Amino acid sequence: MQGVSIRQAEIAAEQQYVDKVYARLLVMREEAKAMIAAAHERGLERLPAALVERDAMVYHATRQLKSLEAEYEGLVFGRLDQASGEIFYIGRLGVRDADFDTMVIDWRAPVAAAFYQATAEQPMDVVRRRVIRCSGGKVLHVDDELLTPDAVPEGLTVVGDGALMATLARARGPMMRDIVGTIQREQDDAIRAPAEGITEITGGPGTGKTAVALHRAAYLMYRNRRRFNSGVLVVGPSPVFMNYISRVLPSLGEDTVELRALGEVLDGVKATRTDPAEVAVAKGSLRMRKVLLNIMKEAPPGAPSELRIVYSGQVLKLEAHELTKVRKAVHSRRVQPNQARKVAADALLEALWQKASSYSDNRFDRKNFVVDIADRNEFTDFVAAWWPPVLPTQVLGWLGDRERLRKAAKRNLSPAEVEAVAATWADQDAGWSVADVAVLDELRVLLGDPPKQRRAADELDEFDMIAHEVTSWHQREQGQQQLGRADHYDHYSHVIVDEAQDLSPMQWRMLGRRGKYASWTIVGDPVQSSWPDAAEAADAKERALGKVKRRRRFLLRTNYRNSSEIFELAADVVRDVVDPDDLPTAVRSTGLEPELRTVPDVPNQTVAAAKELLDQVDGTVGVIGTMARRAELTSWVADLGERVQAVGSLEAKGMEYDAVVLVEPAELIAESPTGLRALYVALTRATQRLTVVASDNSWRE
Ligand SMILES: Nc1ncnc2c1ncn2[C@@H]1O[C@H](COP(=O)(O)OP(=O)(O)OP(=O)(O)O)[C@@H](O)[C@H]1O
């Protein structure tokens, strides 16, 4: 009883402080709004200097207002009591009172590091670390940890039984939450690592890699906003996953980081479809690049195969084999085909001239000849048809023709691969697959941009020009640069790659192009890899990253997601094929063993299991099967409501649910060459309960 009342007293005391912070926040909001209004008034003077000043003021005030208005789950979440008696409150953003004294320290500030870094061995002057759990402005719970029990001052109470464990046991919602109140030391080291060079974070399922990567993005932006203003890009496996993590950065007050799924990296394409494993392997391998290099040198389908021109009564003819020779010569100049129309026209003129001079004993003048022919419609029409601008998507359409793909593939694809890959590109209505996106991006670079039509001249007057310039500067500063950003932007200052173990070599090339000038954070787990040729992917990754000297690695060892009972079952699946050091330790036991059901009627038993789990957990239930089964699973659970989500094995990557029904594990094993690992991923998605529904027992053998 006494414990409860002590806790209530402590909660009430913290509530008083949090109330003061929220009151101050209200004042700060009003101040920011007043500043924006004043700035706009200043801008009415329409003088360039006033505009610049207006934009600087608006920029700062808007940023301030945005961060003040963000809907924080709890603005204040921590408190440090120092041995010196000093007290610091830690929160999602820094707050000062009217006298400019600190009320709350931003979690990313150096002083706040002790909140995450202090341990009993290295207390960093901290006596008591308190995690304060709030919902909006209401304090719900406090939880303490004593770091220097010998130095506890009189009257300092200690309550709670582990903020981390309490947080981990909470039900999961459909969106990932930030972990700012309970970041662990090994995670904090990775979050606060220097920005330069390459930071690699590896660790098993549930070790917080995604959470760490996102908190690192927020940290980097906070510590050096100007430097990262040219953009931070976070790439993850699927739109389902990007949606799942999309609330984390805004809840940390960051809304300028760009999140893209692998199927959305190329502007203008949004791919969600996945290919069968053997097709994805062929498309993702560097062998595919060789195929593309071959096909782009071929004449486009429908290109004319003969050129006839009459000059001075003489018929000049270039036949198919001669045109092929000219085409080859143009390609040997190594100009991107879409930029090579002029080179091609010149080469044709030269070939025609050779003809003309051989027929005419050099009686023509070359200059006159070239000027005359180059001007003729029949010649320009021929060039347009023979060397048309080519779009990447068109090329993949051509490769839907099995014969054409076989010729371009030479020995780079097996006959079975040619058959399977061509079939996916022949069906133009199916939409692009995720693996196609990297192929299209490669073609974009190989082919070059098609020549653009000139735009009509701008008709801005001088004032408008200045206003335009100042306003776009303002947008850039606001981090809205994506809005006006050119397609295929490659000036990101930092690229974060999640689930990096699954990137194919072609996908590494695609990201390498986006991060030419960037530093990198690369997050992944080799054990969860679905890419069969690890050496090829590793090589492509190194090339994509370029010659960066500074490199640091972090290994996360604690699985915060799964109960130890669930993780044991998952680890058993891969134990024989992986290094035991690559398997993390699950810290939380629930006493609930996974249920393994062998049943004749998989569809009904899946629905029954999902219903049971809905009753047993408060949060989400994932139903996971092979990609081929995904649509079917969705229809089975269609009536069970929003808490149930059906996903295929690849979409399950990175996701987490309170409970999971895993359907037909043997099918996951058979789905791809890395099927065992896919099963390991699927088995490690649940935080509390797992039911496996299988028609036989073979998956356990
Ligand atoms: N320090 C922490 N405090 C509270 N929760 C945490 C902490 N670290 C991780 N978690 C939680 O553990 C779960 C797993 O984290 P996350 O998804 O980032 O792991 P992961 O390493 O990316 O997993 P996977 O490799 O399986 O995708 C999440 O719910 C996350 O919020």
UniProtKB/TrEMBL annotation:
Gene3D superfamilies per the UniProt record, alphabetical: P-loop containing nucleotide triphosphate hydrolases
InterPro entries: DNA_helicase_UvrD/REP (IPR000212), P-loop_NTPase (IPR027417), UvrD-like_ATP-bd (IPR014016), UvrD-like_helicase_C (IPR027785)
Gene Ontology CC: cytosol
One example of a Gene Ontology biological process annotation: recombinational repair
Keyword field: ATP-binding, Helicase, Hydrolase, Nucleotide-binding
Residues binding ATP, per UniProt: G203, G204, P205, G206, T207, G208, K209, T210
Domain UvrD-like helicase ATP-binding: 182-563
GO terms assigned for molecular function: 3'-5' DNA helicase activity; ATP binding; DNA binding; hydrolase activity
UniProt cross-references to SUPFAM superfamilies, sorted A to Z: P-loop containing nucleoside triphosphate hydrolases (SSF52540)
Record keyword Hydrolase present: yes
Domain of life assignment: Bacteria
Record field: transmembrane: none
PANTHER family in UniProt: DNA 3'-5' HELICASE, UVRD / RECB / PCRA DNA HELICASE FAMILY MEMBER
Protein's name in the database: DNA helicase IV
Species this protein is from: Allokutzneria albata (Kibdelosporangium albatum)
